[in-house]
């Protein structure tokens, strides 16, 4: 029973798909076919995971960029308000 759990955890549905493909195609060398199928599956899965991680990273970078832009706009607005107060105070003291 533990072996079954191990296989499910490690292979998931992949092994069942691979064996179904071997049964459907019935290649002359089923072991080699199965090995190539599993290799291709793993290669594709790794590429998909890498793409998923890159999308996450890009989204995080985009979110950080938006946050930095907001902060820059807030600082610019604050600087403008300080400048306006300074000019009003300077004008009032000149009178």
TrEMBL record:
Keywords: Coiled coil. Belongs to the dpy-30 family. The gene is DYDC2. This is DPY30 domain-containing protein 2 isoform X4. InterPro entries: Dpy-30_motif (IPR007858), DYDC-like_DD (IPR049630), Sdc1/DPY30 (IPR037856). Pfam families: Dpy-30. Residues 41-68 form a coiled coil. CDD domains: DD_DYDC-like (cd22966).
């Amino acid at each position: 029973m533990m072996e079954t759990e191990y296989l499910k955890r490690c292979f998931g549905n992949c092994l069942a798909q691979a064996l179904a493909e071997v049964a459907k195609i019935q290649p002359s060398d089923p072991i080699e076919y199965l090995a190539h199928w599993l290799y291709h599956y793993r290669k594709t899965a790794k590429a998909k995971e890498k793409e998923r991680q890159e999308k996450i990273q890009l989204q995080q970078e985009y979110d950080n960029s938006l946050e930095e832009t907001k902060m820059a706009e807030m600082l610019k607005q604050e600087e403008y308000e300080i400048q306006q107060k300074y000019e009003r105070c300077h004008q009032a003291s000149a009178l």
